[in-house]
Design a protein that fits this description.
Helix content is about 65%, strand content about 0%. The protein has 19 helices and 2 strands. A two-stranded antiparallel ribbon has the order 1-2. Strand 1 and strand 2 form a beta hairpin. It starts with a helix and ends in a 14-residue tail after the last strand.
C-alpha cells in the first residue's frame, strides 16, 4: 500500500513539475532543464526497479516548487513523517520554506508541518518554539492547529500547568468548534495536578480507600475547583470530590456526589467498588442501581459486588445461593456454578471466595477510540492517548 502511495505521489509531483515548466512565461536555461529532466529519468528508473524511496529522493533532490507541485510536496512530507522518516520530512519542509514562491499562508503551513516533524522526532524544544510562534501570530486556521498541537506537546511532556494555560489560550480564539472537548481535557489536566497533591490514588485497587492516601489537610481543592469550573459534571472531578469528602469523614456527602455520576460501562470499574465503599450501613441504597446496571450490561465483573451486598444484608448462605443462581444464567460461567454447588458449603465461606471471584471476573478496560484493552483503568488510554 505504501508503495502505491509513493508511486502516486511521484507521478503527481512529476506531472506538476512538467506542467509548471510548460506554463512558465519564459524558457529556463537548457542546462537546468536537462539536469531536472535527468533527475526525473533517474527517479523513474528507481520506480521501475521497485525502489520508491530512492525514486522520491531523486525527485526531491532538485525541488521545483510551484503552485502546481506544492500540495504534492506537503503530502510527501506528511507521508515521510507518518512512516517515521523524520530526516526526510524535515528536508522536504525546509526546502519548502526556502522557496520564494510560497504565500504567507503556505509558509505558515510549512512551518507548522516542520514543527510536527520536530515534535514527532523528539526535538521538543524546537517544535515548541515554532508552535508558540504560530499560535501567537498566524492565520486563524494555522493558529488553531498550532494551539492544539502545543497542548498535546505539553500533555506528552506531562507539563500539566503549561497545558492548562495553552488550552485557555486556544479557547480564547474565535470559532473553536471543539471547545467542550478541550475544556474536558483541561479538567483532566487539573485532576492530574490534584492527584499529585493527594499522592496519586491507585484507581485499580478494588477499594481505593484502602490505599491510605486521603489526607484532609492536602490542598487539592483548588485544582479540583478549577476543573469543575471548566467542565461541570466531569466524571473524574466527581470521583476526586468523593475522595475529598471521604477524607473529611463525610460519608453522606460522598454518597450524594456518587449519585450524580452516571453508571455506565466506561467508568464502572471505578464507580462500582466506590459505591460499595461509601454505602456503609445502607447497602440497599445502591442495590437497585447496581442490579439494573448488571441486568442491562451483563457485565460479569459487577456480580461479585452484588453478591457482597447480599452477604452484608443476609449472610453467607444467601450470598452463596445468589452467586450460584446468577452464574447459571451466564453460559460462560455455568461450569463454575456447578463446581460451587458440588462444594461443601459448610466448610467454604463466601467471604473467603470473594478475592478469587474478583480475580476470575475482573473489570475490563476498553478504549472507545482505538479498542485497547487491559485490566487496569486509565483516564488516558496508553495506546491512542484519548481521555475518558
Amino acid at each position: 500500500m505504501d508503495a502505491l502511495i509513493f508511486i502516486f505521489i511521484f507521478c503527481s509531483v512529476a506531472f506538476g513539475f512538467f506542467l509548471g515548466r510548460r506554463t512558465n512565461s519564459f524558457q529556463p536555461p537548457q542546462s537546468n532543464w536537462s539536469s531536472a529532466h535527468n533527475r526525473y529519468i533517474e527517479g523513474l528508473k528507481y520506480l521501475l526497479d521497485e525502489q520508491p524511496d530512492h525514486a522520491i529522493d531523486a525527485l526531491v533532490s532538485e525541488l521545483d516548487i510551484s503552485q502546481q507541485t506544492l500540495e504534492m510536496y506537503f503530502s510527501l512530507g506528511a507521508l515521510w513523517r507518518k512512516k517515521g522518516e523524520m530526516e526526510r520530512a524535515i528536508r522536504v519542509h525546509h526546502a519548502l520554506l526556502e522557496s520564494p514562491t510560497l504565500t504567507a499562508l503556505q509558509r505558515q503551513q510549512a512551518q507548522l508541518e516542520l514543527a510536527l516533524d520536530y515534535t514527532h522526532s523528539g526535538v521538543l524544544d524546537r517544535g515548541e518554539v515554532l508552535l508558540k510562534e504560530l499560535a501567537g501570530s498566524a492565520h486563524p486556521t494555522i493558529q488553531q492547529s498550532a494551539g492544539r498541537e502545543l497542548v498535546l506537546l505539553f500533555q506528552e511532556e506531562r507539563e500539566w500547568e503549561k497545558a492548562i494555560v495553552a488550552v485557555d489560550e486556544l479557547c480564547r480564539k474565535a470559532d473553536i468548534p471543539d471547545l467542550p472537548f478541550w475544556r474536558h481535557v483541561q479538567a483532566h489536566y487539573c485532576c492530574e495536578l490534584a492527584e499529585h497533591v493527594l499522592g496519586s490514588p491507585d484507581w485499580n485497587e478494588p477499594d481505593v480507600l484502602s490505599t491510605g492516601i486521603l489526607d484532609p489537610a492536602n490542598n487539592a481543592q483548588p485544582w479540583i475547583a478549577q476543573a469543575e469550573h471548566q467542565a461541570p459534571a466531569h466524571a473524574r472531578v466527581l470521583f476526586m470530590k468523593t475522595l475529598l469528602a471521604l477524607g473529611r469523614k463525610d460519608l453522606a456527602g460522598a454518597r450524594h456526589i456518587l449519585r450524580t455520576i452516571k453508571l455506565e460501562g466506561q467508568h464502572s470499574m471505578l464507580l462500582v467498588p466506590l459505591m460499595l465503599s461509601v454505602s456503609g450501613q445502607y447497602p440497599g441504597d445502591v442495590w437497585d442501581d447496581l442490579l439494573s446496571f448488571y441486568r442491562d450490561s451483563r457485565n460479569i465483573a459487577v456480580l461479585p459486588f452484588l453478591s457482597d451486598l447480599v452477604y452484608r444484608q443476609y449472610g453467607e448462605a444467601k450470598a452463596f445461593d445468589f452467586l450460584v443462581l446468577e452464574l447459571r444464567e451466564n453460559q460462560n460461567y455455568r461450569a463454575i456454578a456447578s463446581l460451587l454447588v458440588a462444594m461443601d458449603t459448610s466448610s467454604v465461606q463466601y467471604s473467603k471466595l470473594r478475592p478469587a471471584l474478583i480475580e476470575l471476573m475482573p473489570f475490563q478496560f476498553s478504549c472507545h477510540q482505538c479498542g485497547f484493552q487491559g485490566r487496569q483503568f486509565y483516564w488516558c488510554c496508553p495506546s491512542c492517548k484519548a481521555w475518558r
